Amino acid sequence: MDDTEKMVEEATAEAERAESSRALYEVKMKFLGRTGKVTALLKSMKDLAAEHRPAFGKRVNAVRERLEEMFSSFEQRVKERELEAKLSSEQIDVTMPAKRRSKGALHPITRTRMELIDIFSGMGFEVFEGPEIENEHYNFTALNTPPDHPARDMQDTFYITDEFLLRTQTSAGQIRFMEKREPPFKMLSPGRVFRSDDDATHSPMFYQMEGLVVDRGVTMCDLQGMLDEFARTMFASTSKTRLRPSYFPFTEPSVEVDVSCAACGGAGCALCKGTGWIEVLGAGMVNRRVLENCGVDPDEFTGFAFGMGIERIAMLKYGIGHIRSFTENDVRFLEQFKD
Ligand code: DAH
């Protein structure tokens, strides 16, 4: 009798000291496990005289029940304590500053190119992309610029071999497009071009956007009307255009196109050098020789073409002073073009 009472006391004292469920489980096994003390007592029953066995068995079973109850109440307490410790160690402070997630932005050239495509596709233009490596035929000859033509000097060309070169103008795409397609059409051709040229407003690689419209009865009025619409959408609702006579071998007549200065509204400022106008692109009526070179009958069809530098448009629109800003990858510059 004393032994069993002592065992209960001993088990309770040890269980009280157990601080984790693991430690408590070990104590429990020491008494109630397969090799535990209570099990050993039950096994010792076979050494007793038969008449004592029922009473002994009853007593040991009662002890086992008491121990089981005791352990389960300790188990509950330990689990609660452990949960509390876990919760307080994992507390979330909702007032802490959040982790910064930096968001990317489209490059200003990409943005401007997309905007241009948007404006002109709204007027029915389809996009066509020609190759960056060209030959003399597409880049010059078919554009009415035969070898030794002085206009070839206007564009310092990177030659790869005698035959191949890096295209100096997206105008090469006009020829490739017209070879494949029958007019009428409206084509827009964005892309990279290359020239041996490098200063504050020129870079050896830059982007152009070419436009070509061929149909029956297309006139210079159509050209200016469309450019007016372009300038109003791209720059300011009050923008106007002005055509100045110029020369390009692939257009006749040729013009340079100015847009009224959006910064001063045409009054004259530093940006437009006091003139109120800013040159934005070259254009003209497609030279009949170019149409002939592509198998288009110039007596039936006429057309206009235009070509602009995407960097130049972006510089004017966003007030960017140096063309190198586009390729320096300075995040402080690029970040300003977020929506
Ligand atoms: N290709 C010319 C250049 O790079 C720009 C240009 C002028 C394109 C007149 C045209 C055009 O289509 O009609 O300087």
Blueprint (SSEs and pairs):
Elements: H1 2-17, H2 21-32, H3 37-43, H4 53-89, H5 108-121, E1 126-127, E2 133-135, H6 136-139, E3 164-166, H7 172-180, E4 185-194, E5 205-215, H8 220-234, E6 241-248, E7 251-260, E8 277-286, H9 288-293, E9 302-309, H10 310-318, H11 331-334
Parallel strand pairs: 1-4
Antiparallel strand pairs: 2-3, 4-5, 5-9, 6-7, 7-8, 8-9
The protein binds 3,4-dihydroxyphenylalanine.
Throw out a few tags for this protein.
alpha+beta; 339 residues; two-stranded antiparallel ribbon; 7-stranded mixed beta sheet; BirA Bifunctional Protein, domain 2
Write a short abstract of this structure.
By secondary structure, the chain is of the alpha+beta class. Helices cover 39% and strands 19% of the residues.
| Main sheet record | 7 strands, mixed
Strand percentage: 15-25%
- Averaged pLDDT: 92
CATH superfamily of the largest domain, please? Bira Bifunctional Protein, Domain 2
User: Regions with pLDDT < 50 over 5+ consecutive residues?
Assistant: none
Helix amount:
25-40%
Using the 3D structure, state the CATH architecture of the largest domain.
2-Layer Sandwich
Label the overall shape.
rod-shaped
Q: What topology, given as strand order, has the largest sheet?
A: 1-4-5-9-8-7-6
Q: What is the number of beta strands?
A: 9
Q: Which small-molecule species are bound to the chains here?
A: 3,4-dihydroxyphenylalanine
Structural class category: alpha+beta
What name does CATH use for the topology of the largest domain?
A: BirA Bifunctional Protein, domain 2
Name the CATH class of the largest domain.
Answer: Alpha Beta
From the N-terminal CA to the C-terminal CA, the straight-line distance is 85 Å
SS element count, helices: 11
What is the C-alpha radius of gyration, as a whole number of Å?
A: 44 Å
